[in-house]
From TrEMBL, chains A, B:
Protein name: Aspartate--tRNA ligase
Binding site residues for ATP: 207-209, 352, 400-403
Gene name as annotated: aspS
Enzyme class: ligase
SUPFAM superfamilies: Class II aaRS and biotin synthetases (SSF55681), Nucleic acid-binding proteins (SSF50249)
Places the protein is found: Cytoplasm
Molecular function terms, GO-annotated: aspartate-tRNA ligase activity; ATP binding; catalytic activity, acting on a protein; RNA binding; transferase activity
Location, primary (coarse class): cytoplasm
Keywords noted in UniProt: Aminoacyl-tRNA synthetase, ATP-binding, Cytoplasm, Ligase, Nucleotide-binding, Protein biosynthesis
Region (Aspartate): 185-188
């Protein structure tokens, strides 16, 4: 007999079925026991006559197989239940569980949850976070494919660090010293010049930052895109706005149950995402919030306040801050007049979730900017040479998958939205 | 005026358009010049009156913008051409090109092509390889999503090597020693146990093998899947056969032009992919091919010969070899009687393109097998603990993206099907 998933039991009333999953919970009532079996699609109540079937040795979270008849359920909120004729343990739990996963919320510290990651995923609410995360990454790819983008896979072992040697993890690469890529920045730009024009990558990136905050992890998934033949950075922002709308739409449609379960405060864009010069934002914070400590950049408090301002004034949870000063941006950023750049950040409810902008496409200008930033152009030969043979005007952006998931769901610590955390204190599991 | 892509010019006869791309080729004919502009969608001939527009300074592969009228073409094989009214150089080539990319085939060594990767991608045939590669990775994800699999992203910086310390790249992780993941093996198994049941990952893997062959690179993309609640390894093979059919179908349908351009000898499965015990294959090679040097494994010549045998006898380019001996398989492989295992390889035209099988799901058996293989279970704590709390019977497989691309296309050196090669001699670009 083929396995039936819990979600398909409704269509099988009166039939014998074989179901498989984890023993979610047990409730005993005299000679009757109710076993709750959980598989990837849901939970079902199974009625056992304990005089006929011995359930003594079966511990919660063991993997079991049940055969029986599907009947309409007497319990409220349940459509069907199983009258068990046979119970088999496929994989017995012989160890004490470090936490209970069958409650609505896991009652354990984040650290214990992360340490016992496999178990914590079995909790419905935890699983829901990653269902939504998968929706985001899948929708990112889908949307961009629809816009003519191609998916690329670029090396993560690199000789040249994106920003020039800081905050990089070192790799022993045969007899050479190499690094883990901080971002696919160089490669995605090169792939624009390769004739692909529009590319995206969903891949691991590495930051050897040793500070330990709720916003940072040392290995994460970066959603990157880069496109050629743009007029300016506004084209990238226009694309991102449509992308964000698509993500939110898909989350609400494809993850309706998860959005409800997690009680998500769905992000609101409004008419359009407001755009504001960084200098203008700083001015508003100074005059209207009496925040006078900002100079040519925002701090986390500034990001929060300007988000509140925009929410009140424009009804949007998002704001594009533009024209970041040159000294705050990497060497490849396209300069604008007055020491500013053609770059932007997207702030969502007080947190930066995207950095993007137009890039320099002239070989000579890029080389000059490297020198200005104190970098040696010879260390960037592989990257620079792509600019020698016809690089279109281009730009792009990057979104941290774990961070956007956490911020959309109102999760404070990005580790909760990270499958397996890598930080200064954690290399396992 | 918005940019028009070359592929959409047909619908614009009589209209003024703005097109952008690379200067593919120039042909002069008295006062007239023909400029061929290439964008991501194709090449178009543009007619220039050189008395009105100076094209002297414009070098091949420069990025240009042309405005003009779309007219029906006089040239054969061309539907339309552009009567140029304006030409602008967006990005000038000021350097000698290291190779010509506008020929049918690039006349340069593989090494020069790889070194000048960005340029070589501009060649139609090179680009076609990666169009097909993208079709493979995209179809892999699509097929598995249709089968209830979820995409996962697992860490590539690991403390525990899959096979226990050999052939790993070392990473300096703050004050600890870590490694680059050889495969997502441990994590995909753990994610089965997490309740996701069916998972796949498309991600980078690392092998610090120092030998330099046409089949091996040191960083590649692995298409991994793992599924719970299987009966045995035959369920994995059954899934893979349907997956391979889906890949071939999509390649033929979605990459028709590329398949023709590269003159691909489309893989043939036949009625079904034949399955044969490894020991049986060795016996056939011994008795029918007089190949007597094989003991409990095939060498590359053996793989070629058994593929020829199967092609002749069953009309299939594929064969599943099953029941590899325990000493040839990793510790997590499910044992079978007589020192064999519930594992398989998929051989395609003489080359192994998949390794898979059922895994051990018992904590105690797995621990025992580690010890048998000379490994210390304590070094695998993060992995092993996932088996303590209910691990379903499960199995999976891995396919190297670059290798399957190369073998399907009849490309001998896997580097040709690798976007940016990482091998013992190459860390750049």
């Amino acid at each position: 007999m083929n396995r039936t998933l819990v979600e398909n039991l409704n269509e099988n009333i009166g039939n014998q079925v074989r179901i498989q999953g984890w023993l979610h919970r047990v409730r005993k009532l005299g000679k009757i026991a109710f076993l709750f079996l959980r598989d990837r699609s849901g939970v079902v109540q199974c009625v056992v006559n304990t005089k006929e079937i011995d359930i003594k040795g079966v511990r919660v979270e063991s993997v079991i197989e049940i055969t029986g008849e599907v009947t309409e359920s007497g319990a409220k909120n349940e459509e069907v239940e199983i009258q068990v004729s046979n119970l088999m343990v496929l994989s017995q739990v012989n160890h004490e569980l470090p936490m209970e996963v069958n409650k609505e919320n896991i009652e354990a510290s984040l650290d214990v949850m992360i340490h016992n990651r496999v178990l914590s995923f079995r909790n419905r609410k935890v699983a829901a976070i990653f269902k939504i995360q998968e929706c985001i990454s899948k929708s990112f790819a889908e949307f961009l494919r629809g816009e003519g983008f191609k998916e690329i896979f670029t090396p993560k072992i690199v000789k040249e660090g994106t920003e020039g040697g800081t905050e990089l993890f070192e790799v022993k690469y045969f007899n050479e010293k190499a690094y883990l890529a901080q971002s696919p920045q160089f490669y995605k730009q090169m792939m624009v010049s390769s004739g692909f024009e529009r590319v995206f990558e969903i891949g691991h990136v590495y930051r050897a930052e040793s500070h330990d905050t709720k916003r940072h992890i040392n290995e994460f998934i970066s959603l990157d895109l880069e496109m050629g033949f743009i007029q300016d950075e506004y084209e990238i922002m226009e694309l991102e706005e449509r992308l964000i709308r698509y993500l939110i739409h898909n989350i609400c449609k494809q993850c309706k149950a998860e959005v409800e379960l997690l009680d998500v405060n769905v992000p609101i864009i409004g008419e359009e995402i407001p755009k504001m010069k960084l200098s203008e934002a700083i001015e508003i914070l100074k005059t209207q919030y009496n925040k006078t400590n900002l100079e040519r950049d925002l701090d986390p408090e500034g990001e929060k306040l300007i988000s509140e301002y925009v929410k009140e004034k424009y009804g949007s949870d998002f704001i594009f801050l533009t024209h970041y000063p040159q000294e705050k941006r990497p060497m490849y950023t396209m300069p604008a007049p007055n020491g500013e750049t053609k770059s932007f950040d997207l702030i969502f409810r007080g947190l930066e979730i995207t950095t993007g902008g137009q890039r320099i496409h002239s070989y000579e200008v890029l080389k000059e900017k490297m020198i200005e930033k104190g970098l040696n152009p010879e260390s960037f030969e592989g990257y620079l040479s792509a600019f020698k043979y016809g690089m279109p005007p281009h730009g792009g952006l990057a979104i941290g998958l774990e961070r956007i998931t956490a911020s959309f769901l109102g999760i404070e610590n990005v580790r909760e939205a990270t499958m397996f955390t890598r930080d200064k204190n954690r290399l396992m599991p």
